[in-house]
Design a protein that fits this description.
CATH architecture of the largest domain: 3-Layer(aba) Sandwich
Family: Belongs to the serine/threonine dehydratase family.
Keywords: Lyase, Pyridoxal phosphate
Domain Tryptophan synthase beta chain-like PALP: 4-271
Helix content: 40-55%
Cofactor: pyridoxal 5'-phosphate
Largest sheet: 5 strands, parallel
Order of helices and strands: EHHEHEHEHEHEHEHHEHHEH
Number of helices: 12
Structural class: alpha/beta
Number of strands: 9
Protein name: Tryptophan synthase beta chain-like PALP domain-containing protein
């Protein structure tokens, strides 16, 4: 069995989110760019939008809830975006951003449920096939579904036999619960080491739920101990600093958590934005 890691944690903003953000911003008209953009983020999407905006000379404001760690807020501000803390969870921040977008006619860059974002994240899938044509299984950390949706479409349109395995944490897996209920449902946002995978897929989800329903072959949940073990494994075996979300994919292989595992596997390491104190505590 060959297992390769796709290191999106080494992107300049520390996660894959830059791809979708850049693709979306490039699709805007000059008038839209002049007005600026807004986004709601638990961290990585905000960094992607902030960095892409600064490269293109577009003004950006990122809204986040009080649940988001302080270091993530500071990281986004350092990339040139204005950050505003709204509400106690991402749904409240999202509601506020929608109102601002409507009232001021400013584009709201959705973190996942947007065709340009999904296509941008799908470039990961194109690279997977190009660099490892023999791939028969991919394991993708899954939250709102933009990443797994884009990658799965890019892969299966060219190689339909590839198995796509979603992985999330046991504590508040929105897409998993939605697929189980056959429609988008809200889940309680709980504290987890994989906090990047938290938040709702949205009850008015337009794209990612249907893509996930059609295209995901298996969905695995991992507990907090396994996420911590994955963070340690990535560091000790590969000298990689990874956030909790990015530690989930390797655990599916290590502990044989899916019956769909093939012989040529790619685990997506989606990001490396973890607080140094937390990382040190887990490693030690």
């Amino acid at each position: 069995r060959t297992v390769k890691l796709k290191l999106e944690s080494l992107q300049i903003t520390g996660s894959f989110k830059l791809r979708g953000a850049m693709n979306k911003l490039l699709s805007l008209s000059e008038e839209q760019k002049t007005r600026g953009v807004i986004a709601v983020s638990t961290g990585n999407h905000g960094k992607g939008v902030a960095y892409a905006s600064s490269l293109l000379g577009i003004k950006s404001t990122i809204y986040m809830s009080s649940m988001v760690p302080q270091y993530r807020k500071e990281a986004i501000e350092s990339l040139g975006a204005k950050v505003e803390i709204i509400g106690s969870n991402s749904d409240e921040a999202d509601l506020h951003a929608r109102e601002v977008s409507k009232k001021e006619n400013i584009i709201l860059i959705h973190p996942f449920d947007d065709e340009d974002i999904i296509a941008g994240q799908g470039t990961v899938g194109l690279e997977m096939l190009k660099e490892f044509p023999e791939v028969d299984t991919v394991i993708i950390p899954t939250s709102g579904g933009g990443l797994i949706g884009g990658i799965a479409l890019a892969l299966k349109l060219q190689k339909p036999s590839v198995k796509v395995i979603a992985v999330s944490m046991e504590r508040g897996p929105s897409m998993y619960e939605s697929l189980k209920h056959g429609k988008p449902v809200d889940v309680e946002e709980l504290e987890t080491l994989a906090d990047c995978l938290g938040g709702s897929i949205g009850l008015d989800n337009q794209y990612t739920f249907n893509i996930a329903k059609e295209i995901i072959d298996d969905f695995v949940l991992v507990d907090e101990d396994k996420i911590a073990e994955g963070i340690r494994l990535n560091f000790l075996e590969h000298r990689l600093v990874t956030e909790g979300a990015a530690a989930t994919s390797v655990m599916v292989v290590k502990d044989h958590l899916s019956s769909h595992l093939g012989k040529n596997i790619i685990c997506l390491i989606c990001g490396g934005n973890i607080e140094s104190k937390l990382f040190t505590k887990i490693i030690s």
